[in-house]
Amino acid sequence: MKAFDRRQQLLGLIQRDPTLRVPDLAAQLDVSQGTIRNDLNALADAKQLVRVHGGGVALNNHTLPRSPAFAARALTQEDAKQRIGARAATLVADGDALLLDASSTVYHLAHFLLDRRGLRIVTNGIEVACLLAQNPTNTVNLVGGIVRAGIDSVIGPWSERFLHDVRIRTAFVSCSGFTPEVGMTEVDVYEAQFRIKAIESAAQVVALIDASKFGKLDMTPSVRMDQISMLLTDGALAADWAERMRAAGIPFEVCT
């Protein structure tokens, strides 16, 4: 079989079942695991999939946002969000209990979790829930409440009441603005309220904040700095912001 034909078959297998890993793919195509890894890298270089630990995630209509408004948000600072999401995914093991908000940065993280098994997920993000539910080993809990078009999230007192009864290992959250002095802030008061309640249920909170949000102070505070276990940002972070973070003793990592 020619390399092109084999890679198209490989891409089809991944599209149908994103949980397949390198040994499974090698067995199905009757080639070595080294050949599969080379093919995955070639498809990633061709922008046909995103390489993840042990396999790949196809970039097709099944994994892209269905909502045009949400897709526009996901494409803003896309490279930075993918780098942050890839690093955040290394903090997640099979079987973990996670809380994921409805942000576009967390949506990018979700792509890098498709090869995990047995995740127990609580989210108010409709796009996040649909993406991770593609893996049949996951248990995805979409909180109840009011569905908001454009933001593609569920908010309200019902969702906050649900959070009261759950215990989460790690909450991954983002924001629309951030300063070391105030912490994470939100344009939308309802999204801020969801995050405030969400982190009360989590043993640790990981903030996913691309560099473009540093220095922005939006209307509603959500997560204070003393509530954040780790902050992940990208290589576009200005040197003066990095110095301010270090001076404040804030645990952060630049994802390059």
Automatic annotation (TrEMBL):
Keyword Membrane: no
Domain of life: Bacteria
Pfam families noted in UniProt: DeoRC (PF00455), HTH_DeoR (PF08220)
Residues covered by the HTH deoR-type domain: 3-58
Gene Ontology molecular-function annotations: DNA binding; DNA-binding transcription factor activity
InterPro entries: Carb_Metab_HTH_regulators (IPR050313), DeoR-like_C (IPR014036), DeoR_HTH (IPR001034), NagB/RpiA_transferase-like (IPR037171), Tscrpt_reg_HTH_DeoR_CS (IPR018356), WH-like_DNA-bd_sf (IPR036388), WH_DNA-bd_sf (IPR036390)
Keyword Transcription among record annotations: yes
Alphabetized UniProt keyword annotations: DNA-binding, Transcription, Transcription regulation
Transmembrane segments: none
Name of protein: HTH deoR-type domain-containing protein
Organism name: Kouleothrix aurantiaca
